[in-house]
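Figure 2 data, in text form.
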Amino acid sequence: MKPLSTQRNQGNTLVLTLLMSLTIGTVLASYLGLIGSRYKVAVRSQSWNAAIPVLEAGIEEALTHLQDDPNQPGVNGWTQGTISGQPVYWKQRNFTDGSYFLVNIYNAISASPSIYSTGFVPSPLSSSSYISRTARITGSNPPLISFAFAAVDSIQLNGNGLASDSFNSSKPALSTNGQYDSSKTSTNGNVGSVYGPVSFGNHNIAGSLYLGPSASTTVSSGQVSGSTYTDFNVSFPDVVLPATAWLPAVTTTIGGTTLYDFTISGDYYISGSSDIQVEAGVTVRLRVDSTSFSPANIHIVSTNGTSGTLTVYQVAGSASMSGNNTVDSGRARNFWYYGLPGVTSVTYGGNSSSIGVIYAPEADLTLNGGGNNNGLIGASITKSITMNGDYNFHFDEDLLTVGPTRGFVVSSWQEL
């Protein structure tokens, strides 16, 4: 009987060993399966995240294309097609790591196009499949000139009174025959500074104040009729001289005064600071090569509702205008002054108001009023602003529709 008992014990030990081995194997297999699953989830998550920069690259290329070729969306590798009966422009770009994007632009020739961008990245689990993410964004092209006055750096207002308000030269309810009328004003005389500091002295504005996140200010809420924002983050690009064939302008004498009298539309250049006159219906772009631009009078003639238009591009130096900038139409859209990066200072003053737009983001602007409640009717964007005396700003809201734009930006984003 003893041999039988020994065999029975050995059989029990073998069964127990097999059960333990099976249990350990099952636990080990489960653990290895868990590790494998976690690895798959981790590498897929990395690929999932990597798809976002790819689709963003598609959005950036679409926005750049809309900016560079706003009226020719079918050039530079973009193909026109139709999706669900709607015209669409699409493009695909492949990258060296195997990822690529496919982007479609709807309503390309409009102020608010829609962009669908899909980013594809190789799947880490299969050499023949991809992981993708899609986003739909709406673009907008906001106006560059949207302030009564704005500065990259400091704003210092000295004196008393109302520093800014607004009107609209294209609307009879907010102007009189296109002219600024103090009895027909609005509260869009907005002011902005990216870096500050900003001081209004004893001035008030009929509008809102926009400040960059790091801009310091001593302006109180009582000096601003609207709101004060502290997230102002706008780039004011440098002026680029148009690529064109510039013709020399020739002076003439009218009533004993030597001046440049433009009777034919075109692109001209000057090296002096004689008076300037642009006749009705004439459109002139003028390159100023003089490093000291100081015409005593600039006159934009308007006859029977037809105005001339002057756009000045000063290459370098400084500008000093006495304030006798007469635009018969009363509309700021008819006179533009652009200071290229070489222009470091612009001074306005005199005994009358000036009509037009100043855009010189590398220049310091100084305004000297003559005590007659003079003003700049239009808008200005410069590096800094110092206002002395009784000089005021009257923003022409018409510039929101006819002026240059900042370029296409994202106004809404939704992942699909």
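Caption note: The chain has two domains: 2-140, 149-402.
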